């Protein structure tokens, strides 16, 4: 089908399709459109966001079955073929003959590209190499000076994943301050977030009259988007004296402080009510995995707070209340809290 028709048909399944490049649309028309229509017939919506445990297991199954079918002897060879130049032609031929794209995405209602990236993350042995040694950090600085931000090349030279080398370099590239945040740094962070959010809102709503400059209040801070994914490496560059993870943690603490408006949510009677509401809402979701929970909606159960705040409270609750919680599934933890902890909290209230 032609490009315009493909884009039009994909829009039903992918709302942000207008921002996707033509070349990606062509690939999606071939790899995804038929699958999406099939899922629609079964009443299954196309998903985005974090992969569930069930989806990860399906990817594992799909990869195992493809390896058995083709005789390729490892997932690394299948998903990182460029690391094996002597086998490259044979692997590419087998992938084409046995419809790799269709097989890898079987049973998963997501765009093929996202499934492929997830599989690469799961099966890359370079993702699980632990802390960087001093020697590795020096090598990383040397390679970056030679090759710039060509993380693909650097990752191959260091036998680490692309994401790992990019993030580690972002941490060590400049003199980072590890002490308390100064007023100047905090203001830089606020300005950086405002700037990237302004760009984001303008690109998503080009016709909108909304402007972050219209008000001197912190109304913009309440917008739901602000505690969702932000380009932290870009924000890190604007702040200058902190690396991206510090910026993210500080921003979450600023949001929590602002959105709770100083209300003592987790003290006394309010604290008991908040825990009771949280357990009840989690139980009502019937979720099998934490990634299936809509944490944004759930934040309303204990007040107008970011999802990271609710997730942190849930973590404390399970650690302090559920024996052997590490051995339990997500749903078993919720069932235990509902059956054992809830009556205890209600009695106390």
Automatic annotation (TrEMBL):
SUPFAM superfamilies: Homeodomain-like. Residues 124-172, 173-255 form the Myb-like domain. One of its GO terms (molecular function) is chromatin binding. Residues 124-161 form the HTH myb-type domain. InterPro entries: Homeodomain-like_sf, Myb_dom, SANT/Myb, TTF1-like. GO terms for biological process: termination of RNA polymerase I transcription. It comes from the Eukaryota. GO terms for cellular component: nucleolus. This is TTF1 factor.
């Amino acid at each position: 089908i032609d490009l315009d028709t493909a884009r039009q048909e994909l829009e039903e399944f992918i709302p942000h399709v207008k921002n996707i490049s033509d070349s990606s649309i062509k690939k999606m028309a071939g790899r995804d459109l038929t699958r999406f229509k099939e899922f629609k017939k079964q009443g299954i919506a196309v998903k985005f966001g974090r992969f569930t445990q069930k989806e990860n297991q399906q990817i594992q199954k799909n990869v195992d079955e493809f390896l058995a079918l083709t005789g390729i002897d490892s997932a690394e060879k299948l998903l990182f073929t460029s690391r094996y130049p002597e086998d490259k032609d044979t692997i590419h031929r087998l992938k084409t003959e046995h419809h790799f794209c269709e097989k890898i995405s079987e049973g998963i209602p997501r765009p093929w590209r996202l499934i492929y990236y997830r599989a690469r993350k799961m099966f890359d042995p370079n993702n699980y190499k632990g802390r960087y040694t001093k020697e590795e950090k020096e090598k990383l600085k040397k390679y970056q000076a030679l090759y710039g931000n060509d993380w693909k090349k650097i990752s191959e030279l260091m036998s680490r994943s692309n994401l790992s080398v990019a993030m580690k370099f972002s941490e060590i590239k400049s003199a980072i301050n590890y002490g308390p945040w100064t007023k100047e740094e905090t203001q830089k962070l606020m300005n950086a977030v405002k700037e990237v959010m302004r760009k984001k809102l303008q690109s998503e709503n080009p016709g909108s009259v909304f402007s972050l400059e219209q008000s001197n209040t912190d109304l913009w801070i309440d917008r739901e988007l602000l505690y969702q994914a932000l380009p932290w490496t870009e924000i890190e560059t604007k702040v200058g004296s902190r690396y991206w993870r510090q910026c993210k943690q500080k921003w979450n603490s600023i949001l929590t402080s602002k959105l709770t408006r100083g209300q003592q949510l987790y003290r006394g009677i309010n604290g008991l009510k908040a825990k009771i509401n949280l357990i009840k809402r989690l139980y009502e979701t019937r979720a099998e995995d934490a990634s299936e929970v809509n944490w944004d909606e759930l934040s309303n159960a204990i007040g107008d707070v970011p999802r990271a705040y609710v997730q942190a409270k849930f973590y404390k609750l399970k650690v302090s209340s559920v024996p052997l919680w590490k051995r339990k599934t997500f749903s078993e933890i919720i069932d235990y809290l509902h059956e054992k902890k809830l009556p205890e909290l209600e009695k106390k209230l």
